[in-house]
Amino acid sequence: MSTEAIPAEKPKRNYNALFGLTLLALLVLLWVILSVSTSSFASANNISNLLRQGSMIAILAVGQTFVIITGGIDLSVGAVVGFATVIAAMLINAGVPVFLAVLLTLLVGVAIGLFHGFGIVKMGLPPFIITLATLTSLRGIGLLITNGNSISINNDAFQEFSRNSFLGVPNLFWMVILVGIPAYVFLHHSRWGRYLFSVGSNAEASRLSGVNVQRTIFMAYTLSGLCAAFVGVLLASRIGIGNPTQAEGWELQAIASSVIGGTSLFGAVGSVHGPLLGAFILATINNGANLLNVNAFWQRIVTGVLIIVIVYFDGLRRRGGK
Amino acid sequence: MTSTAQELHPAPVLEPGRTILELHGLEKKYPGTHALKPVTLAFKAGEIHAIVGENGAGKSTLIKLLTGVMPRTSGEVIWEGKPAALATPHEAMALGINAVHQEVVLCRHLTVAANMFLGEENSRFGILQQRAMVKEAQKIIDDLGFDLPAHVTLGDLTIGQQQLIAAARATVRGTKFLIFDEPTAYLTRKEADQLFTLIRRLKGEGVTIIYISHRMEEVFELADRVSVLRDGTLVGTRNISETNDAELVKMMINRSIEQIYHKEHFTPGAAILEARNLSGKGFENVSMTVRAGEIVGLYGLIGAGRSEFVTTLYGRHRKSAGQVLWEGKEVQINSEHDAIKLGMALAPESRRDQGLCLNLPVGLNLNLPIYKRISNNLLISNAQEKTQADRQIADLRIKTPTRNALASSLSGGNQQKIVIGKWLAHGAKLFIFDEPTVGVDVGTKAEIYRLFSALLSKGAGIILISSYLPEVYELADTLHVFRRGKLVATHGFRTADHEEILTQALAEKQEKLGGQT
Predict the structure, then answer these.
(1) Can you give the pLDDT at residue B14?
(2) Is residue B32 part of a domain?
(3) Which of residues 7-26 of A touch B (CB under 8 A)?
(4) Of A54, A116, A160, B414, which has the fewest Cβ atoms less than 10 A away?
(5) What Pfam families is this protein classified in (chain A) (predicted)?
């Protein structure tokens, strides 16, 4: 390059990849420790179970990350998951072909995401408020529709899906790959991905550079809604019922996974692989705690402490890198 | 008198004329820039010491060091004969050093009184004595001769009035050394007079004042001594009675006008853009034409409607009346997107707020307008993304380690090159530059002006907005003067003198009459 070289900092991107690697190292370390300290962790059964547990939060975290990169937040995803189980269950029980039922459920997720975009862009509501409102309303609507009862899904093939494996890997984990790869390409190799970052960094500068900021925000929340509805379908398949109160608190787990994975709540910093790793780290902690017979209450406390520790060290490193 | 009222009178100060603050080789380096080269200077107690210099000369760096906002790289500071670290703002304030900034740094949602006593509230048994504080604050304000209420929310006042409150606040905390950083930028003439009265009064009470301003007439009106900074170097200090305007300007610039302002004249081509009787928020009935190969300068004070006019052209705000013609055809521009599609490009006034994604890489910032072109329907071409960014970095001589460095790590001048540079690859026909050289050093300024010529030679047209008269004066082929939302005068290249243009922009006589009744 002909530009005047300034010594000092190394390129940032290496650092990002490095962070991904250290998260992976942390995950591997946890697995090694648990394999040694418990007899049952390394069993095929348990690993499949762990992958299933982590998969759904992982997919939610990817959608959540798109939103957080724009500087927003989507608190509704847990409620959307619960609501989607109800929609999927009702459609399937009504005899709608599974393929079509799944598609329609996903469209409901898209519609919810569009509504969030509308509230933020057109009504000027803060993301926190509009998605908080949907969080409580959707649970209410779901309870109203179901009269507070669970809907048992009478379609074995649909439920089989979540239990089966392909090439020895649980189907649910394949779904993470199905979502993760397009999400990665979208975020890191398409211009819409660049726009998510630029809007999160400086919406005004992006607007003046010809970026359609409103459309970008619509897109982020729509994708988050879509991911949540998809997780709803997977959950319905796994538990075999539609119930609007399911997935309580999953929005917080999704946010936690995203943040553990290096996403900045101030926007403009994030990746796809980070939240995925974050979700499986959380799943491993829960799984391991169960195996070690740690009191379920303690599990929650430990998770909270770990979030603080991981994000604190990430912040330290970021500041140190500057 | 209660305790708070006593604080109006500064703590005992040194007898006038003795040295209160000495700087020995004070220096500040940022990565990539040497913002302040070793400065040695002594301030006398009770003097008004003006500091002048161009944007980027190091004035704000000096203030940041003196107020403890940033640590110095090297050098020594002697306060009242003792070395001072000045490592934190708190330490500076404890010594009695305060600053009134150009931008008001107070809490806009709190009342005037709450702001005056922020951090030193009057409370009894932990309960705020709100009424007492309002009364106290009102007394201070009245005492200073400002006609302002103490109980209202600060944000309800004009920027100028807020500035006066900020000044009043700085006087109630045992201040011995007070720095004013371009305090009159947003003030009306009447408010400025009130401020000057306050400053003279503080001087009478023995407070040392640093007064930073672009306005020479204010320097000569107020100051006892003046120091000139240029490119981070202290060029010299003069007694105000022994210097004049011309000498100071020469010290500030140190090169002839021709060396900075690179002006090539091109024969204007066809009209690119024409505004006919355009009105909108903040301006009315403005007509002008921009032709290929010419620079149209818009001069006026901040808030005169220049920026509002161009942002409306650019589709940011709706016009309320009038027409816009693009290459002879009437067009409706309803969004920035429409404007960019036509071939307009805007480099906005505020780099940080509007121009850059600071926490993203340089390369992404440069490519932001052209991602559509360097990607197919789905994917970005990595190769093109790299070559485009590297080419701009090389062409514009942007000083950055790589295209992956964050925009925030660059100096102001280099950031400005990104703001401008991102439009070069885009290939616009009409460039709008809003205050393109604020906070940019002289060398970068000259580079930016050369860039203008390059654009013009390719048949582009330029609208140049500036509050700095020499800039528009030396560069614009057509110069429009704005005042209070109206286009009040139009000149050709150097067809009017500075004084005439200034008078048109200020219309100071009328305002003085209106302001003081």
Answers:
(1) 56
(2) no
(3) 7-9, 11-13
(4) A160
(5) BPD_transp_2
